[in-house]
Amino acid sequence: MCIRDSLGTTEHFRIMEDDLMKRNPFVFGWPLLVGDGNQFMEGTPFRMSAFRTIFSKSMLMLNTRLDLQLDHRQANLAPTDDDDVVLEIPLFCTVNYPVNARMCGGKALVERFNKVMGTTYPLDMPVDVLATFAREQTVKGVTELLSEMEFLDAASKKVPDVERVIRLSPDMMSGNRIVGQLAYTIVYLSITGYDDFIEKIFHRFENHPADIIRVACAKGAHVFQRGDLIDKLVAREEVGSRVRLMLERCKVGIVEGDDAPPSE
Hints:
alpha+beta
């Protein structure tokens, strides 16, 4: 079986690798693959490493993307711009594990773990995989991300029109912070492989008034290789605007001819 989860953010991909190699007793200390020095990943925004767990020999494939800047104000879009401002990067993990009821300790054990930890692991998940991420407080699958998206969307509609605290920079205003979190949750849903992303997420938010949400939709469409949807977003923006440049950059990497037909 295979599942993909979000593990929150980190300052550097190597921090999670070091933690698994040196401080986690449930995985083999020597990884199958490390992020640095991988010739197939150099020159791309992707980083990946792979570990095996001790008991079930499940494969944990950690990965991140360095191209998830969504705010055009902090992106390098012109020769005079500085490099993209990225303080933290997201972490994801794809777990390939054997289907064996004996390795999960029984259905009741995983049910109890999910209830206590607030997770939604499959009920046949091996115990060493559960133990590996037991200390992680931000393990989120599609179910948790959908719940978070609904909460943030509702919260973004209730923020005051005028901030109570004066002299705050735009990125520190409560409304903008909530919208920013919502944007990244949308992207994470696409990366974790939510099957109904185009129908239930993209079409719901593609006309959102916040440009960062529209860019998030474009990033999600890129994950699903839907260049046709990105073109629609680009066409609605003002020619020469930074938002349009940001959306156009989302098409980089899409293979021509692989766009799925429009769903409308």
